[in-house]
C-alpha cells in the first residue's frame, strides 16, 4: 500500500493518491493496538468501580457524626414554662389613658436528656394585658443548654404604658374592672426564642390574685404582690412582637 502510494505521488496525477489515502485511514487497527485500548478501558472501569465505594464510605464517615445527633437524637424545640411570677401593680388611669404596671416572672427552658447541645439566642419577652402590650419587650441573655439541663431566666417589667383613647382604652378598663371584681388578673407574656437558629414564639398566661395592701385596703404600689405559682407556655403564632 505504501509503495503504491509512493508511485502514485511520483506520477503526474496527484489526485489518484486520494483513494489510497482513504483506504489507509480505513484500515482496521492492529490486534496489539486493540488489546492496548481494551486494557486501558478495563483499567479505567476497574478504578472507577474501586473508587466509588471509597467515596461513599468517606462521605458517610464525614456526614454521619453530624447527622445522627440532629436527625435522631434531637427532640422537638423546647417549650418554656413560667416557674413563678409576681404582680405588684396593675392599674388603669382613665384621665391619662395609661396603664401603670409592675410585674416579674422566672422563665425556664428545660431540655430533655439528649446528646445534643442546644443554643438559645434572641430571647425576648413582653407582657400583654387585654391585648395591650405593656412596655417594650425585654431582651434576655442567650445560653447553651447541655444534655438534660435547665436554665432559669428572671425578667421584670415596670412602667407606665399609654393606651390609645377610644375602643382600646375602654377594653383595657373594662377587663381590669371585671377581673378585679373576680379576684384574679390574667397577664399574657409573649416569648420569642431562636433555638439553634430556628425562631419560635410562645404564649404564657399568668393568673395573679389581685394585689391588696397589707392592711387589707385597696390595691396600690404598697400592696403585697399577687403570686403566680407557675405554669406551662404554649406555641403561638408570630403576631405579638
UniProtKB/TrEMBL annotation:
Q: What biological process terms from GO does the record include?
A: defense response to other organism
Organism field: Miscanthus lutarioriparius
UniProt entry tagged with the keyword Membrane = yes
Gene Ontology annotations for the cellular component aspect, listed alphabetically: membrane
Give the subcellular location: Membrane
Membrane-spanning segments: 39-64
Q: What is this protein called?
A: Late embryogenesis abundant protein LEA-2 subgroup domain-containing protein
Give the keywords, sorted: Membrane, Transmembrane, Transmembrane helix
